Amino acid sequence: MSETVLQLKDATIYQGESMVLANVNFEMQKGDFVYLIGKTGSGKSSFMKTLYGDLELTKGKGSIVNFNLNGLKEKDIPFLRRKLGIVFQDFKLLPDRTIKQNLAFVLKATGWTDKGKIALRIDEVLDKVAMKTKGFKFPHELSGGEQQRVAIARALLNDPELILADEPTGNLDPQTSIEVMELLLDINKNGNTILMATHDYALLLKYPSKTLKCDENKVFEVVQRKS
Fold first, then answer.
1. CATH number for the domain including 177?
2. How many domains does the chain have?
3. What confidence tier does 109 reach under pLDDT thresholds 50, 70, 90?
């Protein structure tokens, strides 16, 4: 039985007063890996922001990890985000804390209290992203690729039902982009559902998967040609 983790029906996405995307119909099942592509300014970020509660969905219907996006209350947004893993282009690590302290901060903020369990969970996620030996370092002591690995580890902390990766390779060189991409695909193979916004078409060609495109205020599925 497939399980729907994300569904939009005739959804129209606004940024302030201006309409960004109209009549979006889209569904994602547990275990999917989907790309979201489009030029800069085509609405990819607005699409993502609507999914994690940064922009309100006022027209059409939407649900994500059993939360209704219509009329999502301010007080429910932290609970929604606990069920999502969000990976940004610019890492968003706290510069004055070590990697382990960065991850502990997130766990404590989401209700974890047991120090032993916190330490164990941090080791588990750092191990998944091959960063277990770097936990004592500060963000500025790591390369961009290593910082993005930590950001992915952070997204995995609360065992999310859906990972939203917004241009996760945007600030990385091509070789590091491939390493981060392969890490995300490994995580997907382990059962995590991933929606990844990207403008890196080389990755799409190298790792084809279901692809949505934002263009001229619409979102539609792109059929990739088999080479």
1. 3.40.50.300
2. 2
3. confident
Q: For residues 37 and 224, give the distance between their C-alpha atoms in angstroms, rounded to a whole number.
A: 13
pLDDT number for residue 227: 47
Q: Which amino acid, 223? A: V
Phi-psi region of 9 (alpha: psi -120 to 50; beta: other; left: phi over 0): beta
d(CA 83, CA 189): 19
221 plus 185 within the same structural domain: yes
Confidence of residue 1 (pLDDT cuts 50, 70, 90): low
Q: Residue 15 sits in which domain range? A: 1-83+161-227
Tell me which residue of 118, 171, 123 sits closest to 147, measured CA to CA.
171
Cα separations in angstroms, 152 against 38, 113, 130, 194: 23, 22, 11, 12
Considering the entire predicted model, what is its pTM? Answer: 0.91
Query: 144 with 213, same domain?
Result: no
Distance between first and last Cα of the chain: 31
**Angle at alpha carbon of residue 214, lines to 208 and 215, rounded to 5°:** 120
Mean pLDDT of the chain: 92
Residues 59 and 145 in one domain: no
Helix axis angle, 115-128 to 99-109, nearest 10°: 120
147 and 96 belong to one structural domain: yes
Asked if residues 65 and 162 have their Cβ atoms less than 8 Å apart, the reply is yes
Both 193 and 221 in one domain: the answer is: yes
Same domain, 102 and 147: yes
Q: Residues 125, 131: contact at Cβ < 8 Å?
A: no
